[in-house]
């Protein structure tokens, strides 16, 4: 406490102390309380932001676009959160400057300006919290990453193939894997085996069974059933469905599994974004035809030969 007054000659210390006590000088005495209030308020703002982001994500999974006012509020939170974080970094220094039970400071001007800024940010945070309630953001459960687990046959003898397929899929430079071989060799079983490996690596996993006479509409419907909880898409045209699919998957790291391709599939026509190293998405397809494999321009191929009856479906 003596150190506070010994920094300056007694007369000068008295003059500065008087100035700090007059008018807005009360900032210094309130510094600790204001800092505590600011820390609590910014934590509340962060929680409100996180809750809103979760709800926005749910709405976007339904193909909706976030409102401009929501985006503006989130941007304001990000900016203010950064400013408060920088301000709080100086807290230990400013607290250590306080003396005489917090009524004075070893650097009165610095402490005055600091707590004035703390009070200002506290007011801004409080105001932003009050503006963070948006009734249009619904509260539904997020999209599950993997479809409901199905019972699959034991894949004895496929271990090495599973390892090769997984290694290929997870290589950064490879975006598309083609698995080909005659019917009954275990291609579908292989896909089913590695399905649950995807859940920790991708936002959403989609399995589409492509029959010989299946049209693009059927492929789109399977994808949209996986992505949407409402039925709005059922009456859409193929072009509208393609737009909806592209809009949702364009914001996700996804893996699309096309099982049993009989001919080339135009991803653009379906609405599936092309996998790139930037979006980190993947496409895995199975086919009985080497020609289809070439048409699909896979980055890697996995040929499956005949297995014994006990090793395949």
From TrEMBL:
Citing just one GO molecular function, the answer is: ADP binding
Q: Which UniProt keywords apply?
A: Coiled coil, Plant defense
Q: Which residues form the NB-ARC domain?
A: 159-313
User: For this UniProt entry, which segments traverse the membrane?
Assistant: none
Coiled coil region boundaries: 28-62
Q: Which SUPFAM superfamilies match?
A: P-loop containing nucleoside triphosphate hydrolases
Q: Which GO terms describe its biological process?
A: defense response
Task: Please identify the protein, giving its name as recorded.
Answer: (rape) hypothetical protein
Organism of provenance: Brassica napus (Rape)
Q: What is the lineage of its organism?
A: Eukaryota, Viridiplantae, Streptophyta, Embryophyta, Tracheophyta
